[in-house]
Amino acid sequence: MQIGAHIHSDDVLAAARERDADVVQFFLADPQSWKTPPPLPNAEEILGSDVEVFIHSPYPVNIASLNNRIRIPSRKTVLQHATGAAAIGAKGLVVHGGHVRQGEDLETGLANWRKMFERQADQGGFPVPILIENTAGGDAAMARELDMIAKLWDQVGEFGAGFCFDTCHAFAAGWDLSKAVAQVKAITGRIDLVHLNNSRDEFGSTRDRHASVVEGEGTIDPEVLAAVAAEAGAPVIVETPADGQAADIAYVRSKA
């Protein structure tokens, strides 16, 4: 099992060594902005290392949105960050499933995902896989409920879209984690990355508040999380508090 953590991009390889991580995830730019990601100064060092890399897209990205002022820059940002990810040999770009506003047509939101992939297919596709992540809340979300994920995959599966499975989000959305890996794979045929996060809140809360896998305020049994990681058969990233990441990684690795 490859396991690591979400880190800051300042010194990627040093952060990986500190955590004994096989794989890392980070943002290429301010996660709250639409800014074009600048080149990483240590890109060649990352390319030459054995550490596997995934990139997370900025939080404002919402491919499903019916608002042109959000959807159009979202598409542009995904391509920019996918290009930046490819430049450092990243294995994929994580993008949240997004949502439409209350009362808007869900089917149009799903179709907007398809349009992004169709447009990019005409240009040869994305330079790295786009990994769609399940989300914790929102009645009009594209990737909160399993039945909506199935509808989303009807739109994007043929373009090679990947899936990022977040355990905190799934728990908050009311998924049974003992069944969720099999359910997701039955829909998508794949899990490309696991965000292995405990939850500070109760089952079905719809709140996205991460906790350490083995320490702190987590409400998910660490054994359940370790079982998810083993069953998924994909690289694992803990998006947990930095001071506990090394312990989280060591624990999950011991259970592999």
Radius of gyration: 17 Å
The CATH C-level name is Alpha Beta
CATH architecture, by name, is Alpha-Beta Barrel
Secondary structure: helix percent? 25-40%
| CATH-assigned homologous superfamily | Divalent-metal-dependent TIM barrel enzymes
- Report strand %: 5-15%
Mean pLDDT: 97
Q: Spans with pLDDT under 50 lasting ≥5 residues?
A: none
Strand order of the largest sheet: 1-2-3-4-5-6-7-10
Model description:
The longest helix is centred in the first third of the chain and has 20 residues, at 68-87. This protein has nine helices and ten strands. The protein is globular, with a radius of gyration of 17 Å. An eight-stranded parallel beta barrel has the order 1-2-3-4-5-6-7-10, surrounded by four helices. Strands 8-9 form a two-stranded antiparallel ribbon. With 256 residues, it is of the alpha/beta class. The chain starts with a strand and ends with a helix. It has a single domain, classed as Divalent-metal-dependent TIM barrel enzymes (TIM Barrel). The chain is 39% helix and 14% strand.
In short:
The chain has nine helices and ten strands.
Topology:
Elements: E1 3-6, H1 12-19, E2 23-26, H2 43-47, E3 52-56, H3 68-87, E4 93-96, H4 106-121, E5 130-133, H5 146-156, E6 162-166, H6 167-172, H7 177-188, E7 193-195, E8 198-199, E9 210-211, H8 222-232, E10 236-238, H9 245-255
Helix pairs in contact: 4-5, 5-7, 7-8
